[in-house]
């Protein structure tokens, strides 16, 4: 595990994205848990006290922003990075209101995602 602490929880309905995220994050020395959607994460029970969430916006059944709101209702206060194929001002506003700290656009470039993850995992 890296100097950062906690678990990186990836929620994305695309199996290839989950696999590539696991590979990239584990190369960074991070502990990774994968979920294929909001319902799976909510059903998982208790989440770790430290770490961060990477949540895809466009998933069947429950959009990422709605999942963030449900997690906040459950008092899950882990930092959230929302991933999307297309970021709009409206989506960034909704994500921020729900509790996301960062919205990143796929495909990820220039280290934006990893920088966001390291910031989210840094002691507060």
Automatic annotation (TrEMBL):
This is Response regulator transcription factor. The lineage of its organism: Bacteria, Pseudomonadati, Pseudomonadota, Alphaproteobacteria, Hyphomicrobiales. Signal peptide: none annotated. The modification 4-aspartylphosphate is found at residue 56. InterPro entries: Bact_response_regulator, CheY-like_superfamily, Sig_transdc_resp-reg_receiver. It comes from Methylopila henanensis. Pfam families: Response_reg. Keywords: Phosphoprotein, Transcription, Transcription regulation. Residues 7-121 form the Response regulatory domain.
């Amino acid at each position: 595990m890296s100097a950062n602490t906690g678990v990186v929880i990836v929620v994305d309905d695309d199996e290839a994205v989950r696999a590539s995220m696991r590979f990239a994050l584990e190369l960074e020395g991070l502990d990774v848990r994968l979920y294929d959607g909001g319902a799976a994460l909510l059903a998982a029970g208790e989440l770790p006290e430290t770490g961060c969430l990477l949540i895809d916006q466009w998933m069947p059944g429950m959009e990422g922003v709605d999942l963030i709101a449900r997690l906040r209702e459950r008092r899950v206060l882990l930092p959230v990075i929302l991933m999307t194929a297309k970021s709009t001002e409206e989506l960034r506003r909704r994500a921020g209101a729900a509790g996301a700290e960062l919205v990143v656009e796929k495909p990820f470039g220039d280290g934006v995602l990893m920088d966001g993850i390291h910031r989210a995992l840094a002691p507060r």
